[in-house]
Amino acid sequence: MKAARFDYLRLDDLAGATAALAEGRARPMSGGQSLGPMLNLRLARPECVVDISRLPDLRRVEARPGGILYGAALTHAEFEDGAVPDPTPGFLARVARGIAYRAVRNRGTIGGSLAHADPAADWPTALAALGARVHLVGPAGTRELAVEAFILGAFETALAPGEIITGVVVPRRSAQARFGYRKSCRKVGEFAEAMCAVLVDRQSKVHRLAIGATEARQLVIAEAGAAIDSPEIIDDILRAAGLAADPAAFRLRREVVRQAIAALATEGQPA
């Protein structure tokens, strides 16, 4: 299929982009790896597509006292290749290199992945585990939300009319921090059927666990010390979250969570 007719608009400033998005049925697009297929399948029929890929504000990398703010238009490949600084011991590159295929990573963006809010996408789960925050700009001004507060459900976010993601703030983690990330796919590059990301940074007393590839938004456990130390309680956590109705999916999720926790011992440091 081909996309339904739409107007195309490329602007040079953030204020103009947010104003255009606030008018009528408009959608922003940067890398186009999520919106493009939806347009061609006519699952999305905006009246106007606003190209935000070249906005300087969305390409910046800004150091903050507690971490780094990444512009939303930075590509997966830029994280994979180490073209941007990493406030973690190599965790961002590890996640990025496992996203789909290199052709997708060359075009797809970190902000686009969050805005699409696919439960099976890598960045929403990994960034939720890392304690990242989404930086938003719109007609009402700027605001920041934790990833788990920004994503409301499957393909549903807290974006207000005219508001766009301008960046993602990733907290700085100590050199001793450990990160486990596992996902189950039928073959490389396909959407995950189960995924889990786990962060342990004892220096800052952080123990976070995020389960993705659910039917809704990611399940985030901000105080996950007990689950990490005693993986046998994962069954209770999955049941309490309503993720045990399908026995096969339950067993797969349980195994992926356990693998991610086990990976902390072997893959906590950068490759």
Summarize the structure.
This protein has 271 residues and is α+β, with helices and mostly antiparallel strands. The chain has helices at 14-21, 35-40, 76-80, 91-96, 102-107, 110-116, 122-129, 147-150, 225-229, 234-240, 247-267; strands spanning 7-10, 26-29, 48-51, 61-64, 67-71, 133-138, 141-146, 151-153, 156-157, 164-171, 178-184, 194-201, 206-212, 219-221. It contains eleven helices and 14 strands.
The appropriate CATH architecture of the largest domain is: 2-Layer Sandwich
Order of secondary-structure elements: EHEHEEEHHHHHEEHEEEEEEEHHH
Q: How many individual β-strands?
A: 14
- The 3D shape can be described as globular
Largest sheet: spatial strand order: 4-5-10-6-7
Structural class: alpha+beta
Distance between the termini: 42 Å
Radius of gyration: 18 Å
- CATH topology of the largest domain: the name is Uridine Diphospho-n-acetylenolpyruvylglucosamine Reductase, domain 3
* Helical content band: 25-40%
Q: What portion of residues belong to β-strands?
A: 25-35%
Query: Biggest sheet: strands, sense, closure?
Result: 5 strands, antiparallel
Average pLDDT: 92
- Count of discrete structural domains: 2
Quickly count the helices. 11
Which CATH class of the largest domain applies here? Alpha Beta
Low-pLDDT stretches are none
InterPro entries: Diverse_Substr_Oxidored (IPR051312), FAD-bd_PCMH (IPR016166), FAD-bd_PCMH-like_sf (IPR036318), FAD-bd_PCMH_sub1 (IPR016167), FAD-bd_PCMH_sub2 (IPR016169), Mopterin_DH_FAD-bd (IPR002346)
Domain FAD-binding PCMH-type: 1-175
Enzyme class: oxidoreductase
Keywords: FAD, Flavoprotein, Oxidoreductase
